[in-house]
Design brief:
Elements: H1 2-12, H2 17-30, H3 33-43, H4 54-65, H5 69-79, H6 82-89, H7 101-109, H8 116-127, H9 132-143, H10 152-163, H11 167-174, H12 185-190, E1 205-206, E2 208-209, E3 223-229, E4 232-239, E5 242-247, H13 263-266, E6 271-281, E7 284-285, H14 288-292, H15 302-307, E8 310-320, E9 323-324, H16 330-341, H17 344-347, E10 350-352, H18 361-368, E11 376-383, E12 391-392, E13 397-401, E14 405-416, E15 425-434, E16 437-444, H19 450-462, E17 464-468, E18 471-474, E19 479-484, E20 486-489, E21 497-500, E22 503-507, H20 519-529
Parallel strand pairs: 1-12, 2-13, 8-10
Antiparallel strand pairs: 3-11, 4-5, 4-6, 6-7, 6-8, 8-9, 11-13, 14-15, 14-18, 14-19, 15-16, 17-18, 19-22, 20-21
């Protein structure tokens, strides 16, 4: 545990990629094999399930520390992180322990069937033998809020360097549905098993946003243009008479889309398709909001299957007849893909994402303006000779998104952020006019500079009207331009409208609140693009 706690401290105290990789390399070289597996799991978002509620943890920590509840709440408001707050208020320990990270995770998992009294006894015992940094790590594990500013690419790179393997091979090993409590370090990282998990997807190839003028890419004839669909990036896998559907977030979602299970009987063996999962009906992609109604649900209703049937718009083939073909140029991969999808039974559920014909960059730019009419976000541009790489790479794949939608809105609520923003009001709710009143339609927390965040914080502190827990109602005088990618009807929102990926574009100090947009303006955008 001490080594892992020190690793987190080292990672937190540097912004240097080289130093972070060096710290990870040292840990993976020195730590016990079981601790290595759990560290990899934690860094790749495979956390133990929460065994104790945060309310009970706070109560026990207040009791152990002897603090008044109000002082704990004020401390929490300043620190902004519960696990860190708990570790700071608990008394300094005279005892110590050298137990491993795995030991403490097993200790935590053992509490599942315990009574509340037994859980309290075990948590207090743990707090009394761990130092402050170790308690911070343990508290993170308890609360289920284990997040560290380390990308999966850094973990992959450090493990590849430690084991002298290719980064792409290591990235593939870390994907899939492996359980850190049941797999060894050798099985996960070192052992080359010919019968490795058949369900494993390939690491996704991600595109960068196009930042230069499109004609800087060179000859139009060297490039493929496709619509950039607004869905769930997925890989569909058929191996050894088993069908698997993975999201880009490494979630196995096969059971959430039962209408696609028929593909197990239709797709040829050894097939892996990369594409976009979309709600699709009557030959037309539907709003992403319809797909959202199915995400996170344990049981899919017949009504949902009828209203938002899922289909896959396929744009790449990664495995053909059991062979990894990612190193073949995309024009060859698409030829194989078109052959598979020429089967009418297959193409009812998996459709080829059409290439957009264009003879000049100017013509493509004009077509791009029609993106939302196609329920698309713009174009994907891919070099005809591009291979399928791992992760986000520049050069061969670019996303050329359409300009965002925009509304001027009034800030009506504010809340403090977390981490380094724990004492700054950085999370805001925005509203538009509906007659004489304001109706909220979006929350946003990104887009302002550090200087502007401090200015807004000063405004909130001087213009608070009401307090509801951590939320502050403020004078409705500040106007902000809000950008978002999509818009849809919503029964869950008071405005009747939900927007996709809202963020602050700029603070409109030049506008009075009366000049902000109206709900009718939002409805006009809904009629055009919803």
């Amino acid at each position: 545990m001490k080594k892992f706690a020190q690793l987190l401290l080292d990672l937190e105290n540097t912004s240097s990629t080289l130093k972070k990789v060096a710290a990870l390399r040292a840990f993976f070289h020195e730590a016990e094999p079981t601790d290595r597996v759990w560290a990899i799991a934690l860094f790749t978002h495979r956390r133990p399930k929460r065994k104790v509620t945060t309310r009970l943890l706070a109560e026990w920590a207040v009791e152990e520390s002897g603090l008044d509840t109000w002082l704990f709440e004020e401390s929490y408001a300043v620190v902004g992180d519960l696990a860190e707050t708990l570790s700071l208020i608990l008394p300094t320990n005279e005892q110590t322990t050298n137990e491993s990270l795995t030991y403490w995770i097993d200790w935590l998992l053992s509490m599942e069937q315990d009574s509340e009294l037994d859980k309290k006894r075990k948590i207090l015992e743990t707090w009394r033998v761990l130092d402050q940094q170790e308690r911070f790590v343990f508290n993170k594990l308890i609360t289920g809020g284990f997040r560290v500013g380390i990308s999966k690419n850094l973990i992959t790179r450090s493990l590849a360097e430690v084991t002298n393997q290719e980064t792409t091979e290591m990235s593939h090993r870390l994907m899939g549905n492996w359980d850190p409590s049941k797999i060894t370090y050798e099985e996960l990282i070192l052992k080359k098993d010919e019968n490795e998990d058949l369900s494993k997807p390939y690491p996704f190839y991600l595109a960068y946003p196009l930042e230069s003028e499109v004609d800087a890419l060179g000859k139009e004839s060297d490039w493929i243009a496709e619509w950039k669909w607004d869905g769930i990036r997925s890989q569909l896998i058929k191996r050894e008479d088993q069908l698997y559907l993975w999201s880009r977030g490494e979630e196995l979602i096969t059971e959430k889309f039962p209408e696609l299970h028929v593909l197990n009987d239709l797709l040829p063996e050894g097939t892996v398709i990369d594409g976009e999962l979309l709600p699709f009906k009557d030959g037309q992609p539907l709003s992403f909001a319809l797909l959202q109604t199915r995400i996170g649900r344990k049981n899919i209703t017949k009504k949902q299957l009828i209203e938002a049937p899922a289909r896959i718009l396929a744009y790449d083939l990664l495995e053909f007849e059991g062979k990894d073909i990612r190193k073949e140029p995309i024009h060859k991969r698409r030829t194989h893909l078109a052959d598979i999808l020429s089967d009418e039974a297959v193409s009812e559920y998996v459709m080829l994402s059409d290439q957009v014909a264009f003879s000049s960059w100017h013509q493509l730019a004009e077509l791009r303006k029609e993106s939302r009419a196609h329920y698309a976000e713009g174009f994907m541009l891919k070099h005809k000779d591009s291979v399928y790489q791992t992760g986000r790479k520049r050069g061969d794949w670019w996303k050329w998104k359409v300009d965002p939608l925009s509304i001027d809105a009034v800030m009506i609520y504010a809340q403090k952020g977390h981490g380094r923003r724990a004492d700054i009001y950085s999370d805001y709710t925005f509203a538009v006019w509906d007659g004489e009143g304001l109706v909220p339609f979006a929350k946003a927390y990104s887009g302002l500079t550090d200087k502007e965040l401090l200015e807004v914080t000063r405004f909130v502190r001087g213009n608070t009207l009401e307090r509801f827990g951590p939320v502050r109602t403020v004078n409705a005088t500040q106007v902000f331009e809000i950008h978002f990618e999509g818009i849809a009807e919503s029964k869950r929102h008071k405005s009747g409208i939900a927007v996709r990926f809202p963020r602050i574009h700029r603070w409109r100090r030049d506008k009075t609140p009366e000049e902000a947009n109206t709900l009718d303006d939002l409805k006009s955008l809904l009629n055009l693009y919803g």
